[in-house]
Design a protein that fits this description.
Blueprint: H1 2-20, E1 29-35, H2 54-62, E2 64-66, E3 69-70, H3 76-85, H4 115-121, E4 125-131, E5 149-153, E6 161-162, E7 169-172, E8 175-177, E9 179-181, E10 184-185, E11 190-191, H5 192-206, E12 212-217, H6 242-267, E13 274-280, H7 310-313, E14 317-320, E15 329-331, E16 335-336, H8 340-348, H9 362-366, E17 379-383, E18 386-391, E19 394-398, E20 411-414, H10 430-444
Parallel strand pairs: 1-12, 1-13, 2-15, 3-16, 4-5, 4-12
Antiparallel strand pairs: 2-14, 5-9, 6-11, 7-8, 9-10, 13-14, 17-18, 18-19, 19-20
Helix pairs in contact: 2-6, 5-6
Length: 475
């Protein structure tokens, strides 16, 4: 009897102790939203005033805003390849947009595992809506790369105003730019930003019974600068530049879309269970240089899309998870889109694969007292002849303008005092230049050669000046 009483007391104590402990948090839904070519200074939260962006600003304030959030390349496809794998894309030769070469081999190398591969293995429903730009062949298709569902376009750009009768636009690399559901071409009417948002909302409803991962890859605010009639009247009449008006119209539509998705998560009581990460795939193309077509603004940063200056690689970057990530926080430590994969896996309770370059940001995001140490000692970039490294406040960069035949050579900037990279301090800090250059060389020794050529503006060795970047005809 005494033994039975002791066992009863033991089990009762264990039961009460377990009941007193808070339940382990459920695995969150994970929503990664990527804008295309978004200017850093065009959001209200970054000082933009031409049009209001209340929903993006609200997302930034709902959680953490990274003031030094970077992407791993200043260009669409390689930037996305880095995010999708958690590895510098130069590790596996995905240095340029996959537009030049044999279409069957162009795209994210098949040996690389994506964030969708990892999360699907962890029991998540996985979906991609919008822009892929990671290859065109059957083996490179999103549904061959970890995504259960796909709705979007495979290549680098797409028109917004869709009609069933219209001919496809933006053929590239031997592929016609078409909207697919899975692997089937769709004939659709509507505006792309709205259609992608409708699909995102439907995806969250279909998978309400299990955790899901959704990569929502808008083509806004990338060209063509088509204006949705639904937002045209909201672009101020005082803005007369047609390109700027088109860009701002796309930004208004993007902001509305973010509001619709978050509102639906709130209405369906899923917001508290959803980790949202938002960033732009690269800096905005402004009114200068080779990419002078978008009219984005990257103030206070110098440079644009396609350059390793801050304007090409530092982007709007937010994370929100109600109840887990405190609202209204900013983090100044440099972080990079490579960090999303390990962060998402940590949130999902999934194992971390070997060989990642990204860091798990959850301790910085969810802790009441975030770690004082930065997630990264150094961040690196290589894009054709351009190269850069950031360590703390210091950045060493060797950059050039598109179309230019010469490099700047190594230039050193103090980003705390000079975020616009206006004052080269290399002559005053030769020892620091040598140290950072050596760190870049050591990092670069672990990179691969590009597995396809870039255009002349990306990679001067790729083609002679003026040569067309065309794919061979299919056999």
């Amino acid at each position: 009897m005494l033994r039975l009483a002791a066992l009863f007391l033991l089990f009762s104590s264990l039961f009460l102790l377990r009941a007193a402990q808070p339940p382990a948090p459920a695995r969150p839904n994970i929503l990664v939203v990527v804008a295309d070519d978004l200017g850093y200074a065009d959001l209200g939260v970054h000082g933009g005033r031409d049009v209001p962006t209340p929903h993006l600003d609200a997302l930034a304030r709902a959680g953490t805003r990274f003031t030094s959030g970077y992407v791993s390349a200043p260009y669409c496809s390689p930037s996305r390849a880095g995010f999708l794998t958690g590895r510098y894309q130069t590790r596996f030769g995905h240095e340029f947009n996959p537009h030049v070469g044999d279409e069957a081999t162009l795209g994210l190398p098949l040996a690389e595992r994506t964030i969708a591969d990892h999360l699907r293995a962890a029991g998540y429903a996985t979906g991609l809506i919008g822009k892929w730009h990671q290859g065109f062949s059957e083996k490179h298709h999103p549904q061959s790369r970890g995504f259960d569902e796909y709705f979007g376009f495979l290549v680098g750009a797409h028109n917004y105003q869709l009609t069933r009768e219209a001919a496809p636009k933006f053929g590239t690399a031997g592929s016609q730019n078409l909207i697919y559901r899975g692997r089937e071409v769709q004939k659709l009417d509507g505006f792309a930003t709205t259609l992608f948002t409708d699909e995102a909302i439907a995806f969250t409803d279909r998978h309400a019974a299990k955790p899901w991962f959704l990569y929502l890859a808008y083509n806004a605010v990338h060209t063509p600068l088509e204006i949705d009639p639904a937002v045209a009247a909201r672009v101020p009449a005082t803005i007369t530049d047609p390109a700027r008006r088109g860009y701002l119209a796309l930004l208004l539509g993007l902001d509305d879309a973010i509001g619709r998705v978050r509102s639906h998560l709130e209405k369906t009581n899923r917001a508290k269970d959803t980790l949202i990460l938002f960033f732009s795939d690269n800096g905005g193309p402004g009114r200068r240089g080779f990419f002078a077509y978008n009219a984005a603004v990257n103030t206070p940063f110098r440079g644009d899309k396609g350059q390793v200056l801050e304007g090409g690689i530092r982007v709007p970057f937010f994370a929100a998870w109600p109840g887990r990530i405190p609202a209204g926080r900013t983090i100044d430590h440099p972080i990079i889109a490579l960090d999303i994969l390990p962060t998402a896996l940590a949130a999902a309770g999934a194992p971390q694969p070997a060989g990642l370059d990204g860091a798990n940001l959850l301790p910085h995001l969810t802790s009441a007292t975030p770690p004082a140490a930065a997630p990264h000692t150094d961040l690196f970039w290589r894009f054709g002849p351009q190269r850069a490294v950031r360590r703390g406040q210091w950045k060493l960069a060797d950059w050039r303008d598109f179309g230019a035949k010469t490099q700047s050579g190594w230039q050193l900037f103090d980003l705390t005092a000079d975020p616009g990279e206006a004052r080269d301090l290399a002559a005053q800090q030769p020892a620091l230049v040598r140290d950072l250059a050596a760190a870049w060389e050591k990092w670069n020794s672990g990179n691969a050669a590009p597995i396809w050529r870039g255009t002349p503006n990306e990679d001067p060795a790729g083609h002679p000046p003026g040569a067309a970047a065309k794919s061979p005809k299919k056999k």
